[in-house]
TrEMBL record:
One of its GO terms (molecular function) is nucleic acid binding. InterPro entries: Piwi (IPR003165), RNaseH-like_sf (IPR012337), RNaseH_sf (IPR036397). This is Piwi domain-containing protein. PROSITE patterns: PIWI. Pfam families: Piwi.
Length: 219
């Protein structure tokens, strides 16, 4: 068992920070405790929210040559640029990291919000961690704009969506009934029970062949 878990949480808007703190993190701790052996040192947790959909952009004050082989000039900030003051919100531990090399257009930095930091890493260590985990994606030899765990989670979710949408179309075709797969954040207990059954149903639809388990089949 690991001594520490570092989780990158994607797909969270600013209005959902409280949900992550009050709902998701306690459930994560409960799942960790269920797997922790007796007399074992408690597993600590670090959770970082990752946001790409924002309107913040950074440019250099003067254009510079993109690389030694090209005469093209750019104002995009270099890979590894970090902004952690002045423009960030004072109520959260927030920083921006521009980890990738933008070929076309204006690069969009990734926004990181530290929700839990039980490993007690310094801001510099957290920023370096978020930068380095953008380098180990098997699809690309250059740094990505997002941490590799987030990229892999997006790919895995997309593959699962293909399975689910195919099964939904098949069910509707043969059963002549429309399946509602849209979930509402504000529901009654009865609707939540229906939603949980539907989620369990989807989980049964997504099956991984034995020869594809324990490997990055979704990449």
């Amino acid at each position: 068992m690991p001594e520490h878990l570092i989780i990158f949480r994607d797909g969270v808007s600013e209005g959902q920070f409280d949900t992550v703190r009050d709902v998701e993190i306690p459930l994560i701790r409960k799942a960790i405790e269920a797997k922790t052996l007796k007399n074992m040192k408690p597993i600590t947790l670090t959770l970082i929210i990752v946001q790409k959909r924002h309107n913040t952009r950074f440019v250099t004050t003067e254009p510079y040559q993109k690389d030694a082989r090209s005469r093209q000039m750019t104002r995009n900030v270099p890979s590894g640029t970090v902004v952690d003051n002045t423009i960030v919100e004072p109520n959260f531990d927030i920083f921006y990291v521009n980890s990738h090399f933008s070929i076309l257009g204006t690069s969009r930095p990734t926004k990181y919000i530290v929700s839990v930091n039980e490993l007690k890493l310094s801001n510099a260590e957290l920023q370096r961690l978020c930068f380095l985990v953008c380098f180990n994606c098997v699809r690309h030899k250059m740094p990505m704009s997002l941490p590799t765990p987030v990229m892999y989670a997006d790919l895995c979710a997309y593959k699962s969506k293909i399975h689910i949408m195919h099964r939904i179309s098949t069910e509707e075709k043969y059963n002549e009934e429309e399946i509602d797969y849209d979930f509402d954040d504000h529901q009654s207990p009865e609707n939540i029970e229906v939603e949980n059954r539907q989620i369990h149903r989807y989980q049964q639809w997504v099956k991984i062949p034995d020869n594809s388990k324990d490997c990055l089949f979704f990449v």
